[in-house]
Amino acid sequence: MQTMSQAFDTAFHSERLLYRPVDLTDEDKKYFYEAMFSDPVIVGLGSPSLLRPKTRSQSDDDLSSILKDSLLAVMICLLPQEDSLAASTSGEKAAGDASKPVPIGFLSMSKLSESMQQMRFTRIGIQLAAPYQNKGYGGEAINWALDWAFKWAGMRKVEIGTASYNERAAHLYRKLGFVDEGRRRGVVFMNGEWFDMIGLGMMLDEWKALRGIE
């Protein structure tokens, strides 16, 4: 069993990833604009909102709004040794400074209004830059977020969702232990078709069972 010091020491990283605050510096804003908000595939799979190009100013405003409405908002980063290992395995050049964590995506958890905080639930949002998808990083980050929500934030429930055309995301969420809670039928319009929004959730007791916690 971990001591409290050990728990504190590992609170902001998982096996391959580190989670740091999003800083409203030009560097972080530029990353979001170029790696997240300018990629129509990432935007379309990650959000049911109207698909249209964004200016840098709109991207900056969206980021500020997300941070304002989030209980937690972190940059998902590769630990330096993981970036070097991934590069050597793929034959590509490492993405950044060998001594610094490399940003690969973003994760947020929604914040309830003051009058709703007693409900103790939150909702995960996650996006990964294209070069880092299909490597297991998304599942690792979501598992970390679940642990943070239940171990540190005192949540009773964590929700996540996706449009029905993003079948891979829905499959991953179920694989991680999320349970289907319902569909909002025909509420997403994309590429000339109507799709459902799938809602999934995990309760505290379900998380404890997955982690083997009595």
UniProtKB/TrEMBL annotation:
Regions that span the bilayer: none
SUPFAM superfamilies found in the cross-reference section: Acyl-CoA N-acyltransferases (Nat) (SSF55729)
GO molecular function: acyltransferase activity, transferring groups other than amino-acyl groups
Residues annotated as domain N-acetyltransferase: 49-205
UniProt xrefs under Gene3D superfamilies: 3.40.630.30
UniProt xrefs under CDD domains: NAT_SF
A Pfam family hit: Acetyltransf_3
Superkingdom of origin organism: Eukaryota
Name by which UniProt lists this protein: N-acetyltransferase domain-containing protein
InterPro entries attached to this UniProt entry: Acyl_CoA_acyltransferase, GNAT_dom
Organism, as annotated: Pleurostoma richardsiae
